Amino acid sequence: MASITAVARLVHINPSSKLNPSLVSATKPLFTFFSLKSSYSPIVSSSAASLTSSRAMSYDKQLIAAKKAASLASLLCQNVQKGLLQSDVQSKSDKSPVTVADYGSQVLVSFVLQQELPSQAFSLVAEEDSGDLRKEDSQETLQRITKLVNDTIASDGSYKVSPLSESDVLTIIDCGTSEGGSNGQHWVLDPIDGTKGFLRGDQYAIALGLLDEGKVVLGVLACPNLPLESINNKNQNALTKSSSGCLFYAQLSCGTYMESLSGSPPVKVHVSDTENPEEASFFESYEAAHSSHSLSGSIANKLGVKAPPVRIDSQAKYGALSRGDGAIYLRFPNKGYREKIWDHAAGYIVVAEAGGVASDASGKPLDFSKGRYLDLDTGIIVTNRKLMPAVLKAVQDSLKEQALPSL
Ligand SMILES: Nc1ncnc2c1ncn2[C@@H]1O[C@H](COP(=O)(O)O)[C@@H](O)[C@H]1OP(=O)(O)O
Ligand SMILES: [Mg+2]
Ligand SMILES: [Mg+2]
Ligand SMILES: [Mg+2]
């Protein structure tokens, strides 16, 4: 086991940092209490219950760290997406794709959070683990990830640390194996949400949330390919324009904000306030295998929704909904698929703080306190408060019809 060299170190923010300037100026010089020598060992909580928390507390420090982590991970993902190689993509045991960028993003987020919040116990529930990378035929992939991570840290210039070794990278990836739960604080990370969209050159998100006593208290969604302008169904060619990407963030009781990943001033966003389902447009997965398009079609018909669905990948749907690009997001995966908390935590609070609401098909709010999986009934509905009763009824009627044996 690698050992920690605990040395207080002053980290100066380099003015030439490539990150969003608002993040850099907000991040004052700070002390970190470990330095990275030849090996790396994470600050891991021995027990979630040992984490202190208070419902009345502010999460400002965590929010600054989370924005910085997601922004740095976005830089890595954008660089990889520009020149993606066949060898950058692997298949996981569940047959879903994973790329060097998924792993690199997870390492960067975990690294930045621990650097920025050195005095806090660290617990992370994240999607990726190092199992496949420890296999012999993954040596080249691991080297590529290590280089990508070190290049990104060096190009940003905020952290004066020695380059991470391959073994450090594996250790940092495995910081994400926490089980979460209802005690203490846990970060929740999807390092690339929508890997299939990432591979197509379409939408994806770096999604980072924080749970405190089982509740999502902050969320950051970096969407590097999402334009700042609306992508509602009248303006879908906005999706094909090049963009510097959007960063959405929300903290409990503080609202939801959006800024560009290149550092425009933040604007407060709000969900659509339409009460009329006929005017509402809806989002659903691009991938039909992730959510039943026919069920959403039947729900939309019942509601009288006129516009065709906007199909995009990832939690970018939650971001777009939080600023009113559409009013309803429906997600009905195949029977047997278990939703994970990292696929919804950040998006959930981004929408909730923008005035929206998310529930399962029985109308129960999403519960993030049960570990790595969400325990829910059938599917997920996200909309504004006024539309929720009508959408819920249409969902339940459509599900009943679907359950009837066809004549
Ligand atoms: N069979 C599946 N059904 C539903 N969701 C899936 C499935 N396979 C992967 N996912 C996850 O769905 C999310 C993206 O879906 P969508 O774009 O449809 O919203 C991602 O979190 C993706 O994981 P990943 O994070 O690995 O991309
Ligand atoms: Mg995945
Ligand atoms: Mg995901
Ligand atoms: Mg993912």
UniProtKB/TrEMBL annotation:
Mg(2+) binds at E127, D190, I192, D193, D343. The keyword Hydrolase applies. Gene3D superfamilies: 3.40.190.80, Fructose-1,6-Bisphosphatase, subunit A, domain 1. Keywords: Hydrolase, Magnesium, Metal-binding, Multifunctional enzyme. The keyword Hydrolase applies. GO terms for molecular function: 3'(2'),5'-bisphosphate nucleotidase activity; inositol-1,4-bisphosphate 1-phosphatase activity; metal ion binding. Pathway: Signal transduction; phosphatidylinositol signaling pathway. Its cofactor is Mg(2+). InterPro entries: DPNP, Inositol_monoP_metal-BS, Inositol_monoP_superfamily, Inositol_monophosphatase-like, Inositol_monophosphatase_CS. GO terms for biological process: phosphatidylinositol phosphate biosynthetic process; sulfate assimilation. It comes from the Eukaryota. Transmembrane segments: none annotated. NCBIfam families: bisphos_HAL2. Belongs to the inositol monophosphatase superfamily. This is 3'(2'),5'-bisphosphate nucleotidase.
